[in-house]
Amino acid sequence: MTLAYDVTGDGPALVLLHSSVCDRRMWQPFEAPGFTQVRPDFRGFGESPMPTSEWNNAEDVVALVDSLGIDRFSLVAASMGGRVGLEIAARWPSRVSSLVLLCSALRGFPSTPDADEFDEQEEALLEKRDLDAAVELNVRTWLGPLATDETKALVATMQRNAFEVQIDAPEVGPRHEAFDLSAITARTLAVSGDHDFEVFANIADHVAEQVPGTQRVSLDWAGHLPSLESPERLNPLVQDFLRA
């Protein structure tokens, strides 16, 4: 299966992996001059349809870059995309030169009460098929105080699309592969936002402990989606790390 994707720019390859609240449109405000940017939609998000059989997101992304003739690349990955980025960097360490994690998730990592409460609220709304309320809950939860009305509208559009694509899809789950964070050799930057759920700061701390040389940054202005909330603050941080 081919993922929907965009390619822009010129230079070394940079793959951008989106959050589960969004799709590849979340990278519209992101700037990385001097890089060829590859922005895919995961299955069931944006313009990529839901799968009808078992799949693995990391393998999908690697297959995409293979099809584009890309051998080595950097990754900038948000939330669920961060979880996928960690898997790629651990399973194919020689292929990933730099890894930027923005409020990354990590499968199997212990949750926190605030995140559990959100999950329960969202599940209850989706069970009632109240998509309007579920979208509003996600926008309110995941965007920090600097998000503009335009940004909130974009996130609402992306999240609603994901709900509509996924809610009646066949119950086919992803295939999970084991990997070891200590296998990652990419230069790594782990970012969290002070207005986000505690679990994501804990994950960033854990990555910094497990991946040698990781740079750890906490943003006092950010929620869960800093690249959307204040690109003028985040872009220079990421650009400097990628170019170092």
From TrEMBL:
Gene Ontology molecular-function annotations: hydrolase activity
UniProt cross-references to SUPFAM superfamilies, sorted A to Z: alpha/beta-Hydrolases
Domain AB hydrolase-1: 14-235
Keywords attached to this entry: Hydrolase
UniProt key word Hydrolase: yes
Hydrolase among keywords: yes
Pfam families: Abhydrolase_6
Protein name: Alpha/beta fold hydrolase
